[in-house]
Amino acid sequence: MVPYPNSPIACHDNRVSVIGGGRVGSTLVQRIAEKNLADVVLLDIVPGMPQGIALDLLEARGIEGHDCQIIGTNDYADTAGSDVVVITAGSPRKPGMSRDDLLQINARIVVEAAKNAIAKSPDAMLIVVTNPLDVMTYLAWQATDLPPHRVMGMAGVLDSTRFRTFIAMENGVSVADVNAVVLGGHGDLMVPLPRYSTVSGVPITELMTPDRIEALIERTRRGGAEIVELMRTGSAYFAPASSACLMVEAILHNQSRQITAAAYLQGEYGLQDIFIGVPTRLGCRGIEKILELKLTDLELSSLKISAESVRDNIKKAQGMLDH
């Protein structure tokens, strides 16, 4: 019998639950399944919607050539035993909205989702994708009381791949030859680092004029907003889903990949008690290490300004949750 989305039959040892069946969540499920990484559970509060998405993706298995089980559900009980939980639930940005405008809308959604999911999968790694991302990651960590190395936010991967893409386009080279580093909060105060961004090992400061580099930095900071303005009725989802999938793969395959993620700082870069984008080593134990780059005074100052903005929004969100 062909398994339907609520079937308990499992094909993989690994299990990933995606909370939120919108465009990012459903695309992430597709990415995970088509890479044959794990069985996937897609949960959403809308009756029938995640079940329909799951069945649609299941019916593509014969063409895509994977054996992953895909379950659509409205019940957190179906997420039990997950190795990784990814929270994408929340309201997307609309034209004219900043990521911070979503604070009040998404804080309660993320806290509830994190509590419910971790109650069913207490050993899971938790990845937060919902915006404003650094704040939501902190709230999810507080709500679940997980060790901080098991909680992380996706943003640094996305910001870095956007910077990589723009560098490749500007220089007419393959994006495979480009590496880029972006630190800080996932917002307008993020801190791209041209000194650490290279084409085949050559810093872009040797390849581009300061004006062109600054233009790419600004476009990276506005990467999400540019897409929102173009689409008008939604926000980015292909690149965010690919970014989250890279993190899931690094954990499930214990790759110890060096990537930028929103991680909990305990003195690194002079920052305490905050989740913010920094270079990390990511593997099966979650955040295995935080790498401290040697920053200039200006870079460190920019990172701390970004952190203060995140910290202010954490306080605002906590106040909203208390009422």
Spell out the blueprint of helices and strands.
Blueprint: E1 15-19, H1 23-34, E2 39-43, H2 49-58, H3 61-64, E3 70-73, E4 84-87, H4 103-120, E5 125-128, H5 133-144, E6 151-153, H6 155-171, E7 178-179, E8 182-183, E9 191-192, E10 198-199, E11 202-203, H7 210-221, H8 223-231, H9 238-252, E12 257-266, E13 272-283, E14 286-290, H10 297-321
Parallel strand pairs: 1-2, 1-4, 2-3, 4-5, 5-6
Antiparallel strand pairs: 7-10, 8-9, 10-11, 12-13, 13-14
Helix pairs in contact: 1-9, 4-5, 4-10, 5-10, 6-7, 6-9
What does this protein structure show overall?
With 323 residues, the protein is of the alpha/beta class. 41% of the residues lie in helices and 19% in strands. The protein is built from ten helices and 14 strands. The strands form four sheets. The protein has a six-stranded parallel beta sheet, with helices on both faces. The chain has a three-stranded antiparallel beta sheet with strand order 7-10-11, covered by helices on one side. Helix 1 (23-34) packs across helix 9, helix 6 packs antiparallel against helix 7 and helix 6 (155-171) packs across helix 9. The longest helix has 25 residues, at 297-321. It is globular, with a radius of gyration of 19 Å. The N and C termini lie far apart (50 Å). Mean pLDDT is 94; it is low at 1-8.
